[in-house]
Amino acid sequence: METGISVQEAVLRLFLIRHGQSESNAHWDQMLESSQMNAHLTALGRSQVDQLADWMREKVPQVDAIYTSSLHRALESAAPLEILYNLQAVVDHRIREGGYCYKTGAPIEDHLLPIHKLVNFHADPFTPFATHPPEVESYHDLRTRVGNFLGDLIQNHVNQTVVVINHGWVLNAFIDIVFNVGSQRSVYLYPENTSITYLEYIHPYRMGPWRAYFIAQTPHLDVFPNGMLTFNAEA
After folding, report:
1. What values do phi and psi take at 176, rounded to 5?
2. How far apart are CA 202 and CA 38, in angstroms?
3. For the chain, which ranges sit under pLDDT 50?
4. How many other C-beta atoms lie within 10 A of the C-beta of residue 155?
5. Which is nearest to 234 in space by CA: 12, 23, 25?
6. For residue 32, what pLDDT is reported?
7. Which of 11, 22, 56, 127 is the most buried (most CB within 10 A)?
8. Residue 202: is it exposed, middle or buried by C-beta count within 10 angstroms (0-12/13-18/19+)?
9. Which pLDDT score, from 0 to 100, does residue 233 have?
10. Where are the beta strands (DSSP E) in 19-79?
């Protein structure tokens, strides 16, 4: 992949990929049962991840590590890439969707996931420390766990290419951290399912440690503009 940065300079080459369309994306208003909240991919979602794998095969010949959220839709999205790169994805609760963890960072059990329906980060953009209900994480808590995960990637994957299969709110947290956004955020990034964000963490650096090459792009899908065909903001 042509980036303009030599391999010797790039400490971390990072692909952040949202999962394929899930049943919760397609039928969010009807997702009332606990078994439905940890949703599987739809037929469209499976097609999206297959198209993603085809694009990655052509454009990204080598990947050193794959990480995925522990939710079904992320695990199923990672599977074609595991086959493509002959890697076993590392499952990490820290990149679960926002509102799917307790304030401690521990994952909410599947049978209790309907409480996620009470979490609305969209409704509280200027109260990032608010929790609804109290035991569930706030947006600030989400950013903290994502930041801890990102710090581990930087430390453990020097001069490597890493793929992270994650979620819409998690991608927003990544972007907030990389761009040093304050707590009073004023924009939400709407990523299409299987959209690709490519970043490099550079050391030593001259213009800041991060370089952003593209954010929430879908070169493998027939979607323009991003998010207009299949997007659901939640899950």
Report:
1. -60, -40
2. 36
3. 4-7, 226-228, 231
4. 10
5. 25
6. 58
7. 22
8. middle
9. 52
10. 65-68
Strands 196-202 and 210-217: antiparallel
Task: Please name which of 221, 219, 227 lies closest in space to residue 197, comparing C-alpha atoms.
Answer: 219
Question: How many CA atoms within 13 Å lie on the side-chain side of 148?
Answer: 11
Length of the chain: 235
Are 116 and 108 in contact by the 8 Å Cβ rule? The answer is yes
Domains belonging to the chain, first-starting first, are 10-217 (3.40.50.1240)
Backbone angles phi, psi at 6, to 5 degrees: -70, 155
CB 16 within 8 A of CB 39: no
DSSP 117-163: GG--TTT-TT-TT--SSTTB--HHHHHHHHHHHHHHHHHH-TTEEEE
Q: Which residue has the tokens 């947006």?
A: 139
**Residue of 122, 100, 132 lying closest to 113 (CA atoms):** 100
Distance between the two ends of the chain, CA-based, in angstroms? 30
List residues bridging with 164 in a β-sheet: 16, 67
Q: Which pLDDT score, from 0 to 100, does residue 27 have?
A: 82
Cα distance between residue 235 and residue 142, in whole Å: 14
What residue has token string 């990655």? Answer: 56
Cα separation, 104 vs 101, whole angstroms = 8
Structure tokens at 57: 């095969």
Residue 176 is classified by DSSP as H
Encoded tokens for 213: 């090459």
For the chain, the maximum distance between any two Cα atoms, rounded to a whole number of angstroms, is: 51
